[in-house]
Amino acid sequence: MARTEVRDIELEKCHSFASLTDAMYNSGGFTAKKLGQAVQILEEMVKAGSTIFLSFPADIISTGLRGVIRDLVKRKIVSAIVTTCGTIDHDLARSYRKYYHGDFLMDDAELRKKGVNRLGNILIPDASYGKIIEKKMMPFLMRLYREGKKRIAPYELLDELGSIIKSEESILHWAHRNAIPVFVPGITDGSVGSQLWSFWESHRDFTIDVLKEEHAISDIVFTAKSTGALMIGGGISKHHTIWWNQFRGGLDYVVYLTTAVEYDGSLSGAPVREAISWGKVKARARHVTVEGDATITLPVIVASLFERLQH
After folding, report:
1. pLDDT for 2
2. What range does the domain containing 238 cover?
């Protein structure tokens, strides 16, 4: 077995994110090394010209981490997004209204009396969520309907939605500008999804074509020379990403950021190596599972990646 020396992290020599994550890798220690590995694998998949899937849950889009996700899309680092309906909710709502700082220990009954929703330590007034989403979605859906777009796949709908969001802080805005498809396999599970249902109640010939969306994903998977994934959190977004990649023999590169545990058998807690047994990740794939809160790990990883790609 080859021996690699454990090196101390010397902070006075770390003048950039890239040098810090290199030092963390060379430290050999626990999650720090994994974080350094994540940067290396992401750089490798980008430079290899891989088709890169970015998957994540909605909660992080209520936070400032939305800006990190947006920059990955703005810089065309990723090829496709797989996420949940709540991501669309938060991205749309925050393009027009503000969210606020809160605390995990606030009185939830009192917040409800004041018309404020708590997402962890983020506060979302009713006016900044359901009300603004309804205000923006209903005219948008009616416009599509009148244009004859009565049967539409979720990714097509979200591209259309991105075209009307003018805020450059929006993920959907940049996804539209850079022709990066946004796939939401659970499109009805959120406020935007409720607006789709509400519109359908009075326009029964309006249809969300989920199978057309699956066909679009299959086209990406089957035409890719290699595929990689940056997966943040678990659930349907993670599973849909690895599920489709099994049909091409598995992912070639994977970086997975998670706080979930493995011992309960959940998909969210399953490390990348488990997916190898299903053929969803190749046995020879470069992969790492980084345990830790993505609001901490992702900015460091992405900032380091951007620096490396500039050299």
Report:
1. 72
2. 49-89+129-298
